[in-house]
Amino acid sequence: MSTFRDLTAEMDSVIFETMTDDVTINGLPVKGMFSAPWLQPQIGRLNTGIIEPQVVVRDSDVLGVEKGDPVVANGDTYEIVNIEPDGSGVTGLILRPLA
Fold it and tell me: Which keywords are on file for this protein (predicted)?
């Protein structure tokens, strides 16, 4: 019998292979879900309330990542200002655009 954690990991694998963006963290390629407020992310017809750019990645892809590290997404460079693991195997990286 599969545990909830096993089922979630299997679901995450499918999601990360089909619904993610290519980003780099510290120059290393990673699959992540990038969103930015100026892109007006929505769920259905509801605005998500996101107020800063962020990328959601697997926990295993952010081992050793620290605040201030560079992230490149959609051709733009950002720095990590906060790291927010959610306890389900994914971590949100809160970003700030670099000029």
Answer: ATP-binding, Nucleotide-binding, Sugar transport, Transport
Model confidence at 14, pLDDT cuts 50, 70, 90, reads confident
Residue 20 sits in which domain range? Answer: 4-97
Nearest 10 degrees: Cα torsion 72, 60, 37, 50: -160
Express each pLDDT in 15-45 by its tens digit.
878 888 999 999 999 999 998 865 555 555 6
How many separate domains does the chain show?
Answer: 1
| Burial bucket for residue 95 (CB in 10 Å: 0-12, 13-18, 19+) | buried
